[in-house]
Amino acid sequence: MPRPTAVELFRDISDADVKEIARLCTERRYSLGATIFSEGDASDSVLIVAEGLVELVSVSDKGAETILHILKPDQIFGELLFSEEKRAFKAIAATDVRVTVIPRRSFQEILTRFPPVAHNFIRLLSRRLVAVEQGLAGFGHTWSYHRLGRVLLQLGAEHGVETPKGTVIPLRLTHEDLAKLIGTTRETVSTQINKFKRFGLLKREGPHFIVNKPLLMRFLYPEAVASPGPARQ
Predict the structure, then answer these.
(1) How many CB atoms lie within 10 A of CB 207?
(2) What residues contact 46, with CB distance under 8 A and at least 6 apart?
(3) Taking the CB of residue 31, how many other CB atoms lie within 10 A of it?
(4) Whole-angstrom Cα distance, residue 192 to residue 204?
(5) Is-contact 213 156, C-beta < 8 A?
(6) Which of 97-111, 136-150, 208-222 has the lowest mean pLDDT?
(7) Which DSSP string do the residues of the chain spell out, in sequence order?
(8) By C-alpha distance, which of 186, 168, 169 is closest to 177?
(9) Among the listed ranges 87-101, 102-116, 117-131, 148-162, which one has the minimum average pLDDT value?
(10) What is the distance between the alpha carbons of residues 105 and 108, in angstroms, rounded to a whole number?
(11) How far are the Cα atoms of 26, 28, 72, 79 from residue 98, in angstroms, in the given order?
(12) What pTM did the predictor assign?
C-alpha cells in the first residue's frame, strides 16, 4: 500500500513557509542496521526519509519478524503519533540513512500555523486507513505465491527501475526478507521463487531481482486479461 510522502504533506505550502517549517525540524543519521526507534518507544515525532532506505518491522510475541514496509527517500513514518502513545513497530536503517525528524510539539505547531498541512495530513491518514482495510481484506485469503507476487509488483512500483530485461528492484533482498514481507517461511519463498523463475516471471542478476511485470500480472490476475469478443459473422 502507498506510504505518505513529504511532497504530499507539504503540498500548497509557499517556499517561505517551507523554510519556516524546516527550522522546526532536525536531522539524524543512522548506520546500516541501526535501530531508529523500537516497539514500545514513545511516539514523540514524525520522521521523513531523506537518504537511504528504512524498514518498518513488526515483531510477534514469539519473536517472528514481519517487514511491513521498505521506505525510500521522501516517505514519512511515525505519523500515528497522535493516536498511539507508543510505537507499534520498530524502524531499522536498511542502509546508511539520513532522516528528518519533526518532534511532536513542533508538528503540532505546524498543523496549527499552516492549515494546508493539517488538511493534507488528514487526507493522507484517511487514504492510509482505506488502504489498510483493503489490504487486510485480501491478504489473509490468498496463497503464499499470490502474496509474493503482489509484494514483488509493489516493490517494483515503488523502487523499480525499468530496463529492457524487465523491472529491476534495486534492493538487496534475501529470501528471508521476502518471507518477512509476506508472513511465511524462507523455505516457502524459495520454492515459490524457483517456480516464478521456471515460468519466466522472475530472474535474478547478482543481488537484485528482475520482474517481468506483464507476465506476473497475467499470472496473478488472469481474470483481468480481456477475453476476445464474439467472432463476427
Answers:
(1) 11
(2) 76, 77, 78, 79, 81, 101, 102, 104, 107
(3) 10
(4) 14
(5) yes
(6) 136-150
(7) -PPPBHHHHTTT--HHHHHHHHTT-EEEEE-TT-EEE-TTSB--EEEEEEES-EEEEEE-TTS-EEEEEEE-TTBEE-TTTTT-SB-SSEEEESSSEEEEEEEHHHHHHHHHH-HHHHHHHHHHHHHHHHHHHHHHHHHTTS-HHHHHHHHHHHHHHHH-EEETTEEEE-S---HHHHHHHHTS-HHHHHHHHHHHHHTTSEEEETTEEEE-HHHHHHHH-GGGSPPPPPPP-
(8) 186
(9) 117-131
(10) 5
(11) 11, 6, 11, 17
(12) 0.78
Q: What percent of the chain has pLDDT over 90?
A: 68
User: 181: closest CA among 58, 32, 52?
Assistant: 58
For residue 145, give every residue at least 6 positions away whose Cβ sits within 8 Å of its Cβ, in sequence order, or none: 192, 195, 196
Query: How far is residue 143 from each of residues 58, 99, 138, 179, measured CA to CA in Å?
Result: 21, 36, 10, 13
Alpha carbon distance 42, 195 (integer Å):
43
CA gap 8, 6 in Å, rounded: 5
Contact 211, 151 (CB under 8 A): no
Q: Count Cβ atoms within 10 A of the Cβ of residue 53 and give its class: 0-12 exposed, 13-18 middle, 19 or more buried.
A: buried
Q: How far apart are CA 154 and CA 38, in angstroms?
A: 25
Residue-level length of the chain: 233
- Cα dihedral angle (48, 49, 55, 61), rounded to 10 degrees? -20
